[in-house]
User: What shape does this take?
Amino acid sequence: MNRCSLDFLDARIKSIRSSGDLEKDVAKVASIFWYEIIRNHPFCDGNKRTAAESALFLVGINRYRLNMPPNGIIYLSLKIANDDIKNSG
Assistant: This one.
């Protein structure tokens, strides 16, 4: 496990300011989890699975749903891993 990657992720999440729109804020945090866990490999195995499940869990505990089939979740995770999707900041 790469502790620095997890510390960075924690700091990045804590630095986000609320927009006042809960749905937008939840989506932003979930997308950061998804992207950063895949790209920064904080775990020795299962980074794509962990990233996707973390994002889905965060969305779910806030009583939202990601309207995407399982193969779409896999596709998006692979696009992030292959650097086809860039971090927007």
About this structure: The first helix runs from residue 3 to 14.
